């Protein structure tokens, strides 16, 4: 089962943007903490160090108001992952068919980087990338198709 830290880090990765030279950049912990604290729609303030502790798993029991403020921040972003307090605390599964593995896979920085870069590609480019990855994986057993 994915932890709060893993799900929160997956949201940071999902919120990555491409800079002027084409690199994917996640929002910094400090940027997110500041944006949450400056949001006039609620009275929650959160320090960079507390948000970092939530991200690294050393803090695991935030208040519902802190969770709500974090969710409010990410809901205002262009996210592909589901964003809710229930998903963050694992009361709701993002996709029951995917199981808890998605968050642990996305916890790997290289996997997030590949996924985020692929998200900015055209469908044709993604098809080419999948073909390259299939070639790197080697032959598949008969009857086993790819997810495409």
Quick overview:
This protein is mostly helical and 148 residues long.
**Largest sheet geometry:** 2 strands, antiparallel
What class do helices, strands and sheet pairing give? mainly alpha
**Residue windows where pLDDT falls under 50 for at least 5 positions:** 94-98
Report the C-alpha radius of gyration, rounded.
17 Å
Task: Note the overall shape.
Answer: elongated
Q: What share of residues are in beta strands? A: under 5%
User: For the largest beta sheet, what order do the strands appear in spatially?
Assistant: 1-2
> Helical proportion?
40-55%
Number of DSSP strand runs: 2
Number of helices: 8
- Determine the N-to-C terminus distance: 26 Å
SSE pattern: HEEHHHHHHH
Overall mean confidence score, pLDDT:
82
Overview of the molecule:
By secondary structure, the chain is mainly α. It contains 8 helices and 2 strands; from the N terminus they run H-E-E-H-H-H-H-H-H-H. Helix 2 crosses helix 3. The longest helix is centred in the C-terminal third of the chain and has 15 residues. About 3% of the residues have low confidence.
